[in-house]
Structures are given as structure tokens and as C-alpha cells.
Amino acid sequence: MPGSRERRVRWTALAIIAANVALVVALSLFVRSVHHGPPSLMRFFVFASAFALVGAMPMRLDFSEHHVSFTLTDAVVVIGFFYLGPLWLALTATAGELAPCVMKRLPPLKSVFNLSSRAAGGITAGATFVALNAGRGLGPASWFPAIAGAICWGVLNILPVAAILATAEERRYEQTLSRLIPTTAATTLLGASLGLLVAELLRDGALYAILALPVVLGVWLTNRDATHQRDEHLRVGRLYEATARTAAIHSHLDILAVVANEARSLLTGTAAICCIRDETGRWTGRTSRSTGTGGTRSSDVESILNCAGHDYGNAKSVAVPELFRGLAPDADELVVARSPQGSPAELIVAVFRSSADGRVTASGLGETLSAFAAHGAVIASNVRLLSKVEQSLASQLEANKRKDEFVATVSHELRTPLTVLLGAAQTLLRLDDRVSPGERDRLLHTAVKQGQRLQLLIEDVLLVAAAEHGNLATEMTTVIAARFAEDLLADLPDDLRLRVHLGNTPVDAAFVSDRHRLHQIVMNLVGNAGKYAPEGPIEIVISSSDDEVSIGVVDHGPGIPASDRERVFDRFIQLDQTSTRSQGGTGLGLFICRKLASQLGAALELRATDGGGCTFTVTLPRVSLRRLNDQELAENRPSPTSTDGLLRRPNELMRRPASVLAPAASQP
């Protein structure tokens, strides 16, 4: 966790500081006998200024979340071997490091760490030179001791840094050190050689040292370019690792978080934001910091979009807007990259970091971020496609499962009435005249009833097929709500008539619909309520507003969980799929009702009844009664009591056996 990692870094730094202090104290006792009095104030100031000046020209090597700066202070150290004692060399090196710590406003712990490392490195390098040089002055014999002392300076400075870096980035120490050794070795050897050259020139006169300035400048530039190349090599390696990690992501939100986190590591930033435009055109984002990842405010996303502009496929560096001061208080540079135009997904990555002049252009950080943004856009698109494929596969598997269950259910529903029908017919054939007239009539009525049940089941299946292909025929007319309610009550079967209560119906409410299809929907809903709410009243509530007329069927049964209230309108859905369920059915009833409602331009919704149960509501657009002509008025007269004709078809639907009515609509 980030908190525990910061504690480990803090304790590691304190341990290194303590070790440096102990080393300085121990070596101070060793070198106190060396005859080197205090230098003049001018010499002390010159060497301290040289350390500060050379330290102000760093060559930076970036890691995942941190960076290491290399300087040519080795040259100043080597010169100091011949003009300062070990103890005063350590003091001037520490004084030279103090100025950058104050100017950069480094945290106290980091400042103490840097100062102690300089002191330990200076006194160790000086003691090594004194021990190996044995009082010899300048000359070829002193070159090896000087280089050995410079190596001690480099080692004493890089080993603690590698320890802190490995702890901070949770890497193996030897892996971190191996990345630092090439640049450290090159800097140390070049610095030592330059220091010896300047020292030899100073021996012949201070003005001769001026001749070394072009060489020093050329070596510094060459070494800086070499460091940048090494830095670029490490960055390409991190880019490869980052692309490999992001390629394994399968979640949309995860890809944004991972891209932001990897971008922050690539540019050694303090924070990063990754934004993407979804398929609806809305921008969303995720933020990455050392403490973890999280969501991004819409105002932050809008600001990132403004910073990115329309510069597709390129990166730009801008000043950090004031809006982000709370997110990245130490950052003064915002690097923004937008995916190339025509990418499969539109993505923007923004990294907050501490700037170095010319760093973005010179080191290729912008190009690296642009390449990673293009890769992130491809991965995000792949994640979307994968999500769609997985959803489609899951939908197909679910549909196949429902079809299998439907085939099993329909087979059972067909077999039951068919068995009864065949049994009645076979009984009549076998017994013939031995069957009494009353028993014959009973068997014939049973056969007819079960034949009608088979017919209605087949009609449901055909109706589903017609609804799926949009082949349902409808005849739209204006319907008066009050007369429609009278038809509903007249068509109720005997076993439901006593339980159904009709509320007050607005006398002036009318709507446009197919009377017979709507009748079928509502009667099916009533039968469904009677089936799954076997006790309690069933209410039919017709209400109207200025624009709509609503027909509600209310029961007080066990109800349906909120998570299943949309699912029950799918094909072949029965909430109780066990072979021992208490109610039969094909799982098509509510699917047919919603399909019919959609065909009529109506809405069929389900909500929970107060106190328990389900309320199905059909909502239709309202029209004025003044629009009705004579034919429509005739059609809205109360329907005859005969069960013949198309208008009575819903009555037949209600009188079919309970097992072929709607699916488990109110079943918990």
C-alpha cells in the first residue's frame, strides 16, 4: 500500500543518514592527523561555488516514478584532493549541496539525506586519496589515487540513492543498481579525467585552466547526450512493459486507471489523468496518484479537453492550470497527448510533473506519451469490442437456455391436454354404447375443452412468431374507457368475477387503440394476477390526465423482486424454473402482452404495489370524445353477452386452463 511504502522509504532514508553520519565521524578521527589546515575563505568559497555550479547542471535519468540526477562534481572533487584536506573537502561539498536544497525547497528529510551523502562521499574520497597518494603532489603518480578517490565519491553517492529508489518503486536493489551503474561509471571517469586535466593546468598557472573550459563543456554536452540516450532506452523499455500490461486489461474502467498509472510512471509524474469518449459521446476519466487511482471530476475532464485542444496524435506541454493545484501541488508542467485522428477510440492522457527546461522536446517524453496514448486507444477499443462479444455470447447462451426450457415446458403443456383428449376419445371408442349419455357428454366436453386449450397454446406460439417479425395486424379505433371497462367486467370468468374490483372510471376518457388486442392484454394481466395472487382482491384502475389514459391491474400477492421486474417480460421467462413449480405456463404471456402493447403504441410497465404485490399499468395517449364519429360510437356500445365472434375471443382466453396462461409474473 502507498502509506506503508512511504514509511519504508522514510525509515530507509533515516538509516542511510545515520550510517553516513557514523562514517563521517569515524573517518574524521582517521584524517585529523593529516596536515591540512583550514583553507582560505576565498578558496573555501570558490570550491563551494564550484560544487553548486556543477550541481546546477544535472543529467537526469528517469525511472518509473522517480528520477536520478548525475553531475560532473567528480571533477571538482579531484581538484579538491590537491587543494583541500579530506575534512574540508567534505565541508565544501556539503556547503555546495546546501544551495540547491534551499533553492529547490526540498523537503527536510531529502535535504538532510543529500547533505549527509555529500559529506560521507567527500570525506571517504579524500581519505582514500590521502591513503593512496602518500603525500605525493601532482603528477602521473597521483592520477591513480585521484581516480580511486573519485570512484569512492561516486559509489558513496549512488549506493544510498539506489537503496531509496528500490524501496520507493518496490524493485530489487540489484536491478535498480544495474540501471544506474553505466551512467555512474561514465560520469565518474569523465569527471575524474577532467579534474586531473584542470589540476595539471592550474599547477602551471590559473589562466591555463581557462584552456580546459571548451573541453569541459564538450565533455559535459557529450555526457549529457549519452545520459539522455540511456534515459530514452529505459523509457522505451518502460513503454514496452506498460503496453504489455495494458494489453491484458479486460474492463473499461480498469483500462483508464491502468493507462493513467502507466503514463504517470513513463513520465515520472506526480499525477495523471486518462479520459475517453464513450459511445454516447460523453467523456469520462480516471485519475492516478501515488496513493492510488480514482474517478475524475467532470470539471477536471473539461479542463483536460481544453488543454488538449484538437492536436490529434501529438503531445504538448503547458503550465498546470490552477484547477489542478490540489491534485498535483508540486507540479509545474502538464504534458497532454491525444490519440491520433481516426483511432478506434478517442483518448486523452495528461501527466503532471516537475519540469526541466527543454526536457519534453529534447528527451522525447512527448513522443513517448503520444505513442502510449495511441496504444491506449487501441486497447480501449479492444476492451469495448470484447465486452460486446462477451455480452452477445452471454445473451445467446441465455437465449439458447430459454429455448431449451421453452421446448421442455411446451412439450409438457402440450402433452397434458393431448393425453386427456386422447384418453377421452379412446374411452368412447372402447366402451361405445356401454357409456351412459351423461358420461358421454362429460367425456366429449372434456375433449373439446382440452382441444381448445391446445389451440390457444398454439395460437400463443404463432402470436409470438408474428410479433417477432412485426406481422401483427391491428385495427386502430377510438375507444371510450368507461365502455372498455364494462367489456372487461362482462368477460371475466366466474372464478375471478367476485375478486375483481373496478375503480371509478373517468366518463370523458378516451384513447386510440386496437380494442381487441388491448382487451387481450388486460384480460391476460387479470388472469395472471388471479393465478399468482390466489387470495385478496384484484383491482382494475383506469385513470386519465391531460395527455394519457392509464389502465392498471393491481394485485396483492407475493410480488416480484426489483431485479426481475424487467426480466419477466422476456421470452420463455418463468422465475420458478423447477420441475416442481406450483404453476404451469410457457413463459410467453407477459412477453406477448408487452409486444402487443408496443404494437399499439402503448407502454406496459410493472411496479410494486404498496403493501406487497404487483401493479401492471398500460398507458395510452388520450384523445377527445368529440372526435368520435357514429361508427366509433357504435363500436363502443357494451358488447353482447354471447360468447360467439371475435369480440368474445378474450373471454375464451380467460377460460382456458390456468397452466397455459401467462408466466410467473407475480411469482417471487
Under CATH, the topology of the largest domain is which? Arp2/3 complex 21 kDa subunit ARPC3
Principal-axis shape equals rod-shaped
Low-confidence stretches: 357-362, 577-582, 639-668
**CA-to-CA gap between the ends?**
44 Å
| The top level CATH class name of the largest domain | Mainly Alpha
Helix content: 55-70%
Give the percentage of residues in beta strands. Answer: 5-15%
Largest sheet: 7 strands, mixed
Q: Which structural class fits the helix and strand makeup? A: alpha+beta
Radius of gyration: 43 Å
Q: Would you write up a description of this structure?
A:
The protein is of the alpha+beta class. The longest helix has 67 residues, at 365-431. Helix 6 (143-169) packs antiparallel against helix 7 (173-204), helix 12 (365-431) runs antiparallel to helix 13 and helix 13 (437-468) crosses helix 17. A hairpin with a 5-residue loop joins strand 14 and strand 15 (614-623). The protein is 57% helix and 13% strand. Residues 357-362, 577-582 and 639-668 have low confidence and may be disordered. It starts with a helix and ends in a 13-residue tail after the last helix. The chain folds into four domains: 2-238, Orthogonal Bundle (Arp2/3 complex 21 kDa subunit ARPC3), CATH 1.10.1760; 247-382, 2-Layer Sandwich (Beta-Lactamase); 389-466, Orthogonal Bundle (Helix Hairpins), CATH 1.10.287.130; 477-660, Heat Shock Protein 90, CATH 3.30.565.10. The chain is rod-shaped, with a radius of gyration of 43 Å. Strands 9, 10, 11, 12, 13, 14 and 15 form a seven-stranded mixed β-sheet that branches. It contains 19 helices and 15 strands.
